[in-house]
Every structure is written in structure tokens, then in C-alpha cells.
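Quick check before the chapter quiz. The format below is the same one you will see on the exam, so make sure you can read both the input and the output lines.
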Amino acid sequence: MTSVERARRVFFLSRLVALSVAAFLVSTAHAAPPHLERQGSTQRLIVNDRPLLLLGGELGNSSASSAAYMAPHWPKLKQMNLNAVFAPVSWELLEPVEGKFVWSSLDQLLKDARAHDMKLVLLWFGAWKNSMSTYVPAWVKRDQVRFPRVQLPNGQSTEILSAFSTATRDADARAFAALLSRIKAVDAEQSTIVMVQVENEIGMLPVAREYGPEANRLFAEQVPAELLRRLDATRANGTGLHKLWAEQGGKSAGSWTEVFGEGDAAAETFTAWHYSRFVEALVTSGKAAYPLPMYVNAALNRMGKAPGEYPSGGPLPHLLEVWKAGAPSLDLLAPDIYFPNFVDLASLFRRADNALFIPEANNSDQPEVPANAFYAFGKLDAIGFGPFSIEAIGDLKPNPLADAYAVLRQLSPAILSAQGLGRMSGFKPRVLEDETVIATPITEDIGGYRFTVSFTDPWVPKASQRVATHGGLIVQTGPEEYLIAGQGITVTAKPVGAGPPLAGIDSAWEGTFDSQGRWVAGRALNGDQTHQGRHVRLAPGQFQIQRIRFYRYR
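Here is the expected output.
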């Protein structure tokens, strides 16, 4: 090889390397941060340019603060078929000295999540966590002049920071923006962190509003025009706040008591407005640094409880319009559901302007949780689901949640493809707040067939069944093809529309999807397994998938 040829070869190779690096940099630069994207009547979470279904769990409040504590739990979470962990990051640990940030705990959390192929949803424990202000740095706690506390009607202060303090708001917003800047710096390429929760279960206790001088002054002023415009524009939603407003004459201007009356309901609406405005400041500062999807979670109230007897003013069902008006930069308002009436409560947060995400879906050891997950994904197009204190059940044997997540993980591509398009639904018995179980069969049309789903298994003694734990989903994958998954449900079908009036089972297979998404058939079900072609049965106690093809006949 001559020197000229050698030089040409070196030039060609260096040029090839340069082009490859440039192509990589371009592809990286064009990779959008995690975001929400509309599909049909809902939104999906997009991560690394692909839709992602969050099969998650939320850690206990203190767990993520210690890498050593978490070390034995990460492998167990992976074995439980999670793909995401919802983990707190607290202001007191990140900014122990004002203006000086310590990122070691966040960086270790990222390292551990990546090592176990997990995504993260970070929970910002800033000014408030479960109403209280116990996760703020000591320099905030000790300076009650600069960072004032809530005052009760008798003048007594509480361990709750005032939402009316600009110093508190600005300090919290600066720390939150610093967190998002750090995430961008260390995670923009990998997108391990996919969403951020702003504060935690904001709500006023033990009264409906603050009674400090600034709060009293603002309560006597006019209701902001943007809130009243929102109520006027959303009359069709018919929430409790709309009813309250209408009962006072549906005024387009006035003080809080003139518009919403003299009672605690007006005080709680006032509180919700100012909490939402505080949060909006954090969201706008955070998104300016790195625009990840952001949400606020709600500590829900029991029926019959008065404001102040529950954390008041958070993004509760009767206050969603306040939060939509006051914090328009938020992507989601999310329920934490610890009450038995899951179906009723979750449904209130699935709206055209609010995709469903459930960061705390009861405690992870509750037996109804797996069926609730199937219902949330199938019926309500949830983008994510996460029982609380997930690390507490890593050693549980058997582990129904792990089994349910194994099935949901296999079904994720089909679920994501069907969300918002009317090709899927979820089923579970409705349970009332007093734990009464309504096991009446449910009928829904999906594609060309009308399905009736029963929750009491015909072949198992009724007394031995825990019907509240039964549930599943149906996804249409072709004109006559469906995936039916879950446990403890029996499904029958009838055709809808013109054509032969009866439905038969052309074929029924149990099986699984492998890691590449390919169907691996198990038994061909017939005879006793389909009651001689009369129904599809998923027996209680074992989550499974069946692939069914129906046909019509006379």
C-alpha cells in the first residue's frame, strides 16, 4: 500500500467515524423527552419515542432515602414484573443548605433503577407531604418569619407552610427547577425518569382554609375571573362545585362567599385555588428546566366528611375544575385510592382533559389490587398503576400482584394499541364504600360482539370465592379475534348489528406472549373448558390469557 493510498484510507475511516458520531448526535438530539400524546379519546405516555404502560409500585416514604435499605429490594421488584418504581425525593435531602444541592441520593436512585431496567416516577416531597411540611429543609423549618406557617382561627400555628408566602413558593420552585435541571443533565439521553409528581397529597387540615392576615385579606377579595370562566365553560361536567356555584346564582363576579356561599365549601374552594396557583409556579419553573410530564395526587375524602375533616383543597373530584383553571401547566390530576369503591373513584378522574394515572392504588398487599389494575387499564385507559409500599410484598408467596403484572406486561402492546379507540374494556365487581360487593354481570359491546362478564364462577362453591378480587379485560385484536385475560370471570358473547344472530367459539387457546411479543399457544380449549362452546371461563385464583376467535351462525 502506497503512502497516498494509506492516507486516503485513513481519511476515509476518519470521515466514516465522524459521520457515525454525527448521526448518533442527531438521533440523540431529536429524541423527545417523555411526554403525553393523544390517541383517540385518551393520552398515552411516550418514552424514547414509544408508548409505555407503567406497571409500577410506590415505595414507602423513607425507603428511597437509603441505597443500602433498597439494595435487597430492587431484585425482588424486578421479579414482581414491575417496569417502574415511584420513588420520593425530598427537599430536605437535596438542599440541606440553602443554595447548595446534594445529588448523591438522586444519582444512586438512577443508577439502581437502570441496573434493574426500571423506569422512575419521582415524587417531589417539597413544601407539603400529606398536608404537612415535614420534608422541608431545616433552614426552612426554623425560619418561621421568612417561611410562615398556617394559622388556625384562634391564631395558633401548625406544622403546615402557608400557601400565601411568596418566599416559600419561590424557594420551593427554585429547588424544584434545580431538580429538573439535574434530571436533564444526567438522564435526558436515557429517559429513566418519565414523570414527576409535584408535592404529595396537598390538603388543608384541620380546617378548610388558612386564617393568617394575608389569607383573610385575599378571602375577602374577588374570585379570580379565570376560575369563573372555567366554571361557565364546563357547566356540562356537572361537578359538585358547579352545583354549589349555581345554587348561589351562578355569578360572574363577587367575593368567595358571594359566589360560593358562607360555608366551608367556599373556604375549601379558596384553598384549592391558592394551592393550585402555588403548584403552577413550580410546574412552570420545572418545565422551563426540563419539560417532563407532571401531576399532582389527591388524598380522597370519604362521603359525609366536611372540609377540614379530610385534606381539603387538593385535586379532589369536586375541585377538579379549580385545579384545571389554577394550574393549567399540569399534565394530570391523579387519585390516590385507598377506599373500597375503586370503580367509582377512579372513573371520576378519567376525563377528556385528564388521562388516568393512579400513583397509589391502595396498599400493595390488599387482595383487590390486581383486579383493580385490570379494570384501570382495560376500562379507563390508565397510563399507569402503582400500589403503595410495593417493597413490602417482595417476599410474598404466592404473590397475586406479581402474577397479574406478568399477564399485563405480556398484554402491554395490545393494551397500548387499543387505548382510546373503543376496542377494549375492563371488568370487575363494583364495591361500595361500605364494602358491599355488587357482583351483577356487566354487558358491553366491543367490536362486533356484545359481551356479558360474570364474576361468580359457576364451577367453584360460591362460599369459597372472593368475588371482589375477580376481574379482567377484553381486547379486540381483529374483526372476530379477542384476547381475554384475568381471573374469576366467565364471558359469553352475542353478535351485534346485521347478520346471523348467534355467536359461537371458533377457537379458544390458552397461552402466553414471549419477550418478543410472539404468541406461544398452550392448550386448545374446548369441551368442559368452554362448557361445550357456551362460554369463555378464566378460573379463580390464576391470572391467564386466552385467545379467542368467535363466529356467527343462525
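If your answer matched, good. The chain has 16 helices and 25 strands.
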